[in-house]
Design goal:
alpha/beta, Macrophage Migration Inhibitory Factor, four-stranded mixed β-sheet, 8 strands, elongated, single chain, about 30% strand
Amino acid sequence: MPYLDIQLSGTRDDALARRTADTAAELTAAILRKDRALTAVVVEFIEPAHWFVADQALSSGAARSYHWYVSITDETNTKAEKAQYIAAVHHAMAELLGDVAEHSYVQVADVRASAYGYGGKTQEFRYQAE
């Protein structure tokens, strides 16, 4: 039941948002083994003049940036899987955005099962109920 919040530098682009959401669901299912039917993705666009890297607004250069945040239940993926995921995300974003700033980030947040859930039930509750 991952939740992804993806911020992209640039002006709103609905087609790019859709491609990004599809890529997010695909990579998260393929590498982290998460159920696509329970995957939620939010894609937001941040104006380049409002995104700063090394004290410089992205509007002053050609590179684009992204911040990719995914929350997953703790202890459901290995370090190697998360490393593979981070590398795959960066590669995919370079394909989607073109020139990508090195200072683009992927954050995989391992959230305790007792502090994370959906539909009013924690993941811990779901685990115990199985």
